[in-house]
Amino acid sequence: MVIVWTGKLRMIIKMSSDVDHILRLQKKRAVWMNIAEVVSTLSSCIRGNKGAVLIRDNMIISTGYNGTSRGVLNCDEGGCDRCNDDTIESGKDLDKCICNHAEENSVVQAAYLGVSTKHAEMFCTHKPCLPCVKLLINAGVYRVFYKKEYNVVYPPQLSACIDIVKIVDGVPYEVEI
Ligand SMILES: [Zn+2]
Ligand SMILES: [Zn+2]
Fold first, then answer.
1. Buried b or exposed e, range 8-32, using 16+ CB within 10 angstroms
2. DSSP string covering 72-127, please?
3. How much distance in Å is there from the Cα of 174 to the middle of ligand 2?
4. Please, what is the end-to-end C-alpha distance for the chain in angstroms?
5. What is the structure's pLDDT at 90?
6. What is the dihedral sign for C-alpha 98, 103, 106, 112?
7. Any idea which ligand is nearest the CA of 96?
8. What is the spatial distance between Cα 33 and Cα 113, in angstroms, rounded to a whole number?
9. Residue-averaged pLDDT of the chain
10. Is the dihedral of CA 137, 140, 141, 143 positive or negative?
11. Which residues are CB-neighbours of 123 under 8 A, at least 6 positions away?
12. pLDDT the model gives residue 91
């Protein structure tokens, strides 16, 4: 069964006894995505602000935003040479970038605090990059919801290991139950 919830319009394709449960879950998912967006405002990276929230058993276990490592000067204070080099185009020379990604940081924050990420879901403001997807798979994250596009194509071997679902504005979530 598929339910599409637009926020204003609830379109239930097939009735079920647990529709209320699903709609409550959809509402939570909308909130978790909003939290990822709020968390992204903490980012100091001058190449874009990104946020991520990790959910396990319907609870937020950690959050992350992109930026330089703890103890390193913030990106917007000149901490990352690559981000601060205007001649480097978006998405290029990422091996020189010392900003951690929001997705990495949310997994790392859970590890720092000793919380398992096994069988977690992630809500991201942006489509995760390839290295982050590899990391998320091994961290036990089984599904990622994201909102904004990033120019990346995943090899089928990785796509087979994790669900990466785009949230379309106005029609935020489609879920199969
Ligand atoms: Zn940066
Ligand atoms: Zn990444």
1. eeeeeeeeeeeeeebeebbeebbeb
2. SPPGGGT--TTTT-TTSPTTS-GGG--EEPHHHHHHHHHHHHT---TTEEEEEEEP
3. 24
4. 6
5. 85
6. negative
7. 1
8. 22
9. 88
10. positive
11. 29, 32, 33, 35, 36, 52, 53, 55, 144, 145, 146
12. 81
Query: How far is it, in rounded angstroms, from Cα 24 to Cα 6?
Result: 13
Residue 149 half-sphere exposure, CB side, CA atoms within 13 Å?
5
Ligand sitting nearest the alpha carbon of 107: 2
Report residue 175 as tokens.
């879920």
- Global confidence as pTM: 0.85
Task: Give the residue, 50 or 171, on which the prediction is more confident.
Answer: 50
d(CA 38, CA 113): 21
CA of 24 to the centre of ligand 2 (A): 30
Q: 42 pLDDT exceeds 80?
A: yes
Centre of ligand 2 to C-alpha 170, Å, is 26
Q: What is the mean pLDDT of residues 119-123?
A: 97
Beta strands in 13-88, from DSSP E residues, in sequence order: 51-56, 59-65, 67-68
CA 34 to CA 128: how far, in whole Å?
17
Q: Minimal CA–CA distance to 123: which of 174, 169, 56, 23?
A: 56
Rounded Cα distance, 153 and 140, in Å: 21
